[in-house]
Amino acid sequence: MSALQQARFLSSAAAVADFPPETVPELAFAGRSNAGKSSAINALANQTRLAHTSKTPGRTQMINFFALGDAGRLADLPGYGYASVPRALRATWDDLIGAYLMERRSLVGVVVLMDARRPFTDNDRNFLEWLRPAATARLILLSKADKLSRADQAKALARTRCALDAAALTAQVMLFSSKSGAGVVETRALLDHWLQNKKPPEKGN
């Protein structure tokens, strides 16, 4: 069984002090508000309400941690691009997310959800630029791929890969649909591989 299918809620963090100990490898999920991040987590976990979905941007206000059996953890980050959220709250979230991405030594991979119909928006580009200094693997999932024809899916993949090349950014890119199941098995296999082959560094190294 995939580690993702063993996911269970562990804790929520509103401050760095709330982060769990760095004892196992961690995967972080990020994405623009309403890009389908919570639905993707639920599909990968083969659960319906593990991560709460909402049509209201900015619903996830803390980093939510999920235990993946003994294999690691999943960190669900607040959505970015939340224009309707007050600036002061956005700044607080940015500080929290920045501290996690840049300082979390147990982080082995970041999964970024982008809507396949509108991939690589300015918000997506800004997040990836922000993530650039982090020494971690990256995967872009083009969500809601079921809403596109096969031809348009191919165009979305090509457009995203070209945008990454133009920005000198490195990431794997896959089509994904929590509704049709496209990309679910492949994503689980890749993330399991990341967890199995990358261990958090020893303290002091």
Instruction: From the 3D structure, determine the CATH topology.
Output: Rossmann fold
Main sheet specs: 7 strands, mixed
**Name of the CATH architecture:** 3-Layer(aba) Sandwich
Low-confidence stretches: 54-59, 200-205
What is the class in the CATH system?
Alpha Beta
Q: State the helix count.
A: 5
CATH superfamily membership, which one? Answer: P-loop containing nucleotide triphosphate hydrolases
> Biggest sheet: strands side by side, in what order?
1-3-4-2-5-6-7
Oligomerization category of the chains in this entry: single chain
Percent range for β-strand residues: 15-25%
The total of beta strands comes to 7
Cα Rg: 16 Å
Q: What is the 3D shape?
A: globular
Helix-strand sequence: EEHEEHEHEHEH
Mean pLDDT: 88
- The figure for the number of domains is 1
What percentage of residues falls in helices of 4 or more residues? 25-40%
Structural class: alpha/beta
User: What is the terminal-to-terminal distance?
Assistant: 32 Å
Keywords:
single chain, 205 residues, alpha/beta, Rossmann fold, 7-stranded mixed β-sheet, globular
